[in-house]
Amino acid sequence: KAGVTQTPRYLIKTRGQQVTLSCSPISGHRSVSWYQQTPGQGLQFLFEYFSETQRNKGNFPGRFSGRQFSNSRSEMNVSTLELGDSALYLCASSERTGYNEKLFFGSGTQLSVL
Amino acid sequence: DQQVKQNSPSLSVQEGRISILNCDYTNSMFDYFLWYKKYPAEGPTFLISISSIKDKNEDGRFTVFLNKSAKHLSLHIVPSQPGDSAVYFCAASGLTANSKLTFGKGITLSVRP
């Protein structure tokens, strides 16, 4: 099976712009989660989608949004980019949603905001 | 407020010796704990997990110990190998359907040949 695929791998944007990141989960996986990784904060949970519904949301401002399509692919959008949004954005998929589901991560999208 | 704490940012050990990576948590509702390993330019990969009903779980060279009363867990790698050099994240979750994984900041392990 192919792993979790995230596109693009690298992205450079300027402040005030918006960006859309894409994630294709492992075939058969219906849950997709998004995490932000920064050197000082580790991995911080953004949100989780399961069967096109947002099931859980982290403590991020409303500029961060996401959605999931019927084929389980997911997109994450960040509007009005700020310098502090520069980070590695990781997508993870699992077969089901739940506390003990093993997450499979993609390689991430490295976003740089100038 | 960091609910999962990995207070040591880095650890360096000699090949063949034991690596002990520590993790503390503050949320008493956490009942399931995992370790993930991350190499540069790759996403984290699952390593080992433990539920609160156990105090130890082994998988080959990797053993996780859980001390619920101290809200502390540790990952032991024996023997350590150069290929183990990576960032290790501790993560925790509560026992509810809507519970999310909360990660620590990670520990960079370097295994010297």
The amount of helix of chain A comes to under 10%
User: How many DSSP E strands of chain A?
Assistant: 11
Query: What kind of assembly state do the chains in view correspond to?
Result: heterodimer
Indicate the overall shape of chain B. Answer: globular
Order of helices and strands of chain A: EEEEEEEEEEE
Strand segment count of chain B? 11
Low-confidence stretches of chain B: none
Number of helices of chain A: 0
Element order of chain B: H for helix, E for strand: EEEEEEEEEEE
C-alpha Rg of chain A (nearest Å): 13 Å
Q: Residue ranges of chain A: pLDDT <50 for 5 or more in a row?
A: none
Mean pLDDT of chain B: 93
Q: Can you describe this structure?
A:
The complex is a heterodimer of chains A (114) and B (113). Chain A is mainly β and 114 residues long. Chain A has no helices and eleven strands. In chain A, the strands form two sheets. In chain A, strands 2, 4, 5, 6, 9, 10 and 11 form a seven-stranded mixed sheet that branches. In chain A, strands 1-3-8-7 form a four-stranded antiparallel sheet, with no helix packed on it. The model of chain A has no long low-confidence stretch (mean pLDDT 92). Chain A has strands at 5-7, 10-13, 19-24, 31-38, 42-50, 53-57, 64-68, 74-78, 87-94, 104-105, 109-113. The N and C termini of chain A lie far apart (37 Å). Chain B is mostly beta strands and 113 residues long. Chain B has strands at residues 4-5, 10-14, 19-25, 30-38, 45-51, 56-59, 62-67, 72-77, 86-94, 102-103, 107-112. In chain B, a hairpin with a 6-residue loop joins β4 (30-38) and β5 (45-51). The model of chain B has no long low-confidence stretch (mean pLDDT 93).
